[in-house]
Amino acid sequence: MTIFEAVIFGVVQGLTEFLPVSSSGHLVLLHEFFGTTIHNLSFDVMLHLATLLAVVVYFKKDIIHVVDVFKRMMMRQDVLHRERNLIVALVIGTIPAGLLGALFASTIEGAFRSTISVSIALIMGSILFVVAEKVSKRNKEITGKRGFFVGCFQALALIPGISRSGSTISGGLILGFTRDDAVRFSFLLSIPIILGAGIVEVFLGDNAFVFNVPIIIGACAAFISGLWAIHFLVKFLKGHTLMPFVWYRVVLALLLIFIF
């Protein structure tokens, strides 16, 4: 892998990991463009760590608060009802994608990795976004039960083309979360999933983990672009809907179908 390829793949991975446009669809385009089937265990793991670091850096205050609340719960100290619900929702919400990912991730990815299947998933995900925007008129608090169902939406993102951030934000809106709660819960819920994906790749990989200049530069590109993508999406969705991403995804799906 050249430095140029590492930067391009890193930037695209960082952006599309968090923007609701599907990293899988864009990686299919990149592979077609470069005429490669680049898959490097060390590079994949470093990209996961870089995007994980971007979430941790951006939401560091929220993470510190969640950890503090969890510690107080373990020590049987009083915590606010809303704070307790958030902890429970995050724990329970991780189960669907974590369990299905551990058992069937490779099978699902292999079955839905073709250009046509990614295109269909892009369109189906777009329909989910539209539905979410149509019904997002209630302001319900985050609870363990609702967190679990958002986790089920997150599990849909195991299918390449759906988008993890898009499905979880949509799930939050459908379940009545405020836009701000839906976005923040989506990103906090992504932390164990991104970490888990990196761990799985390490243990299931056949190659030794190595560092080199392209890998390090690619990871830096993924971190910077990922941090920007999180900042942009959080600010953008405060006053806008998911509809611009719907149109983008439809165009991308058509490109995949008719060009590649």
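Second entry:
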Amino acid sequence: MQQAVLKPLFPQDDLSEARRVLNLEAEALLHLAQNLDNSFERAIDLLMQSAGRVILSGIGKSGHIANKIASTFSSTGTPAFFIHPSEASHGDLGMITQEDILIILSLSGETAELSDMINYAKRFDIPIIAITCKTNSLLSKAARYTLLLPPISEACPMGLAPTTSTTLMVALGDALAVTLLKRKGFSEKDFKKLHPGGRLGRKLLHVCDIMRPYEELPLVSKDTLMSEALVVMTEKGFGCIGVLDDNKILIGVITDGDLRRHMSPHLLSQKVMSIMTSSPKTIFSSAFAVEALGFMNRQSITNLFVLEENTNQLVGLMRLHDCLREGLA
């Protein structure tokens, strides 16, 4: 008997199928957004009041999504981790304390592997937030609050593989984490503490994180002779000098370019005020380091003096070389 061979889709059919999947899932997300109710607000209130951790669980695809949501919570200032239901039944229930909150994901709400965890939570009065489709399910009845997913069709043409439903779970987890983040006032500074490595950590660096401090700066007063200023410039090795007035306010800068433009037999006997570039380009210490790098590139300069935003006091020097060392380029 000859084996049947499936006819492959033509490229245009592939695109049509992909668009069908994306449109179906986009419509489901809109439906979810439009039908959120006060259970979501109460769940956020509960999470805000918790003194413990957020523990997520689920089995199969729901478990993978729960693991991702736990990671998102943790990276946005809410301590969270994932427990596999089967591992929970073999000792990991001991990781759950009465101060914690459980978020359990199950499309049917009747997943057998979750029963031990649900019974444990009920026994010790540990609140559960359920993410499910079924209002009368075992999970939903045990939960303090249920975040109900709308009735949907899976994008899988057989209606079997979790596709649309898992997209909704991911999005709802993001909504919880981001709403909680805003409620807590979680800032970019807080975010940076939890993401010190990699490209994201570098992107979140501020000027004050990598600038050279005031004590290291090549600075002279406005009445200093160039013969003395050049000694300071050479000792510091930054290729520039900052010029201060009598109140220690930065009023000018002298760079290698300024020296070339004013080169003459009388250069060393002149005062720095006659050589400096007035109103030098500066940046605030609170600015992102990538902003400073972009500004230096646009202005074709390699150094930026740094001011404190509230006082305009000189506090440091930002160097192109320091940006490159941090991998910002």
